[in-house]
Structures are given as structure tokens and as C-alpha cells.
Amino acid sequence: MKKFLSIASFAILACFMGCEAPKPVTNGVNTNANANANANAKPVAAAPTADALLALDKAANEAFIKGDAKYFEGMLSDKFTSFDMGMRMNKSDMVKMVGGMKCDVKTWSLDEPKMTMIDADTYVSSYKGTWDGTCAGPDGKSMKMPSPIRAASLWVRNGDKWQGAFHGETLIADPKNPSKPLPPPPAEKKADKSAANANAADKPAAPALDPNVEAMLVAEKSGWEAWKARDAKKLEEFSSKNLAFIDLFGNYTGTQTETVKVWTEGKCDIKSTSVTDASGTTLSPTVGILHFKGSGEGTCNDQKIMPLWGTSIYIKEGSTWKLAFGFEAPAS
């Protein structure tokens, strides 16, 4: 399975500043103080709507199909990060990748727009994408574009525009009766322990996580343990009131109540959980992104738990990091 990323940018809002007029003074008081303060205020991007974000995602898909790297250079946040099939990319990686794409797309559509507010300066847009076409990367290999997919884009306010800070896509499939076979979990390999230990000694230690990212990782692990225990109360405490979620089968839930219900219903026998390979960044003092690999030993609804690549968007409420948006894709 291979996914192709698509992200949209907010159109820059025009702001026209008038020339500063002479300042009349009466009794030593500047009567135009408020007017001048308003005139000198920096322009701020307006709050978006779900339909507005969908239109911008469509514009970005068009730029992606054309391999328009310059477009992505302007609309991606300097803190942009993606986590596709376990591969992490920053802004420069993404711009380079887009510039090397060659696509032949017959038809495509983006539908079912959803929007989640993280805070006043941060929003997530979600949609369903349907594609009929192929894309080839720098290696020249042509791949059929996965379809249908569920996508999520994270937008951050930067002055008079919105910029992309994350994007992810996952195939839509029914885990009980998928129209297309789901990718199987990676096969377990029996490694030579002596060789593994020798190689481990040669590998550099993983860089220490930022304290905020470390705190988000601790929260994520607690959420997985609450899921294992089917503890709805702890899952509510672990997440924000505006919680929305896209699971590894492309299912979307748009409220905390609906998401916690999905997490706790069904017949599950979970013996253990694991959250590893973490990385992340903070977009502001109160909003952060965590990437990780999640897995569990056990079954749910008579199916073996599949490993996944996860991206969690957290918001800090007081001194506590809480999950505000979760995104999953199969680890294959």
C-alpha cells in the first residue's frame, strides 16, 4: 500500500493600510490614538469553515497533481511534519517530493468535509477522497493512487494566512467485510540475537524527546492502557471535549462521546499495548503533534489487533496534555 499526500493552503487575505494622517493634538491628547492603533494592527486570518477548508484542500490537490513545489513552499508551515507509512518528512522533504511527482489523473473528488477546532489558531480538516489515476515519483515507478481514502490536514494561523502543519491519509475499508483486502500485519521475523545485539551496539542512541513531546507520549500510553481496560471515564479524562478521530480503517468520529463509545464497545481481549518509535513537535506552548507506532497483543471482535502508525494532536489544558485529534493508518 502506498499513499500520496495532499495538503491545501488558505488564500492570503488582502489587507490595505491607509497612509497615516497628521495627528491632531488637543490638550496634549492624541485624538487619533485608537484609529492609529487599528491601522497599525497586523492582519489576521479569519476563522475557517469546513467548506472553506475543503476548497483549499482541492486547490492543494491540483497543485500536487501538477508537481507544483513552489505552491507547497508557500503554504506549508516551517514546522510542518508528516508521518506516512512510518516515514517522517519535514517541510523541505515534502516540497522536494512534490516537485518530483508526475501524475496522470482521470477523475478525482473530495467530499464529506469535517472540521475540528483545536484552539482559535489551530484547526483540523477531514474529508473523503476518491481517485482514478496514477502517480510516479523520482524513481519513475507508476503507482495507482489509493482510493477511497480518508484524509486529515492540520492548519495553523500565521498572520493573515493559514498554513499546513500536518497531513495524513488512510484507505477506507470495512474491517468485517472489506471491499479490498486490508494489508496484513508485518510478518514476525526470528532474528539472530547475537547479531542483533552487535548491531544495536553500533547504532546511535535515539535523540531525547522535547519535554512537551515526552509528556504527550506519557499521555498517549495512558490512553492506550485505558483502551485496554475499556475504561470510558479515563478515556474521557485523557481527551478534550472537542475530540475527533480517524481510525486505521478510515472511519471518522466527530465527538468525544461518539469516539469513546467506539473505543470501549465491542468484544475485546487485550493482553498488552505498546507505543514506540515516538517523535513530535510543539506548534505553540499549548498545541503539539505526536507521531508513534502503536500495537497491542490480543483480539477485538475476533480479529487480531493490527499494528498502526499513529499521529495524535494534543492541546494543553492547564498543566495536562489532552488528545484533541487522533489519526491512524495501518503499519504495513
List descriptors.
disordered N terminus; 16 strands; 40% strand; seven-stranded mixed β-sheet; 332 residues; alpha+beta; five-stranded antiparallel β-sheet; 8 helices
Can you describe what's shown?
By secondary structure, the chain is an alpha+beta fold. The chain has helices at residues 33-40, 50-66, 69-75, 91-99, 193-202, 211-228, 232-238, 256-264, and strands at 25-26, 29-30, 81-84, 87-90, 102-119, 122-136, 142-144, 149-158, 161-171, 239-246, 252-253, 268-284, 287-300, 303-304, 308-317, 320-330.
Following the backbone from N to C, one meets helices and strands in this order, namely: EEHHHEEHEEEEEHHHEEHEEEEE
Described by the principal axes of the CA atoms, the overall outline is globular
How many β strands by DSSP?
A: 16
Which consecutive residue ranges, at least 5 long each, have pLDDT under 50?
1-29, 178-201
Number of helices: 8
Helix content: 25-40%
Find the structural class using helix and strand composition: alpha+beta
State the separation between the terminal residues, measured CA to CA. Answer: 7 Å
Amount of beta strand? 35-45%
Radius of gyration: 23 Å
What's the mean pLDDT score? 83
The main β sheet shows up as: 7 strands, mixed
